[in-house]
Amino acid sequence: MATHKVKTHRGAKKRFKISANGKLIFKKQGMRHIATGMSRKRKRQLKETGVITGTVAANMRRVMPYA
After folding, report:
1. Which residues contact 21 (CB under 8 A, 6 or more apart)?
2. pLDDT tens digits for 33-57?
3. I want to staple 9 with a disulfide (CB 3.0 to 4.6 A). Which of 36, 61, 62, 63 is the partner?
C-alpha cells in the first residue's frame, strides 16, 4: 500500500524560508503602515529578519516537509 504524502502548510510556506544553514527565517511584522510614530531604532529593528529556534522551529519544519 502506498504511503500518504504530507501536505505543506501554505501559510507557513509563504511566511517562512529555510536558510542555507538550515535556520528558519521570517520577516518581522509591523512595518506595513503607520510607522511615523515609531522611533528610528524601532523601525530599524523591524527591518531585520527574525530567526525561529527551538521547539517552534521543529514544529514549523514538520508543517513544511519539502521546503
Report:
1. none
2. 999 999 999 999 999 999 999 999 9
3. 63
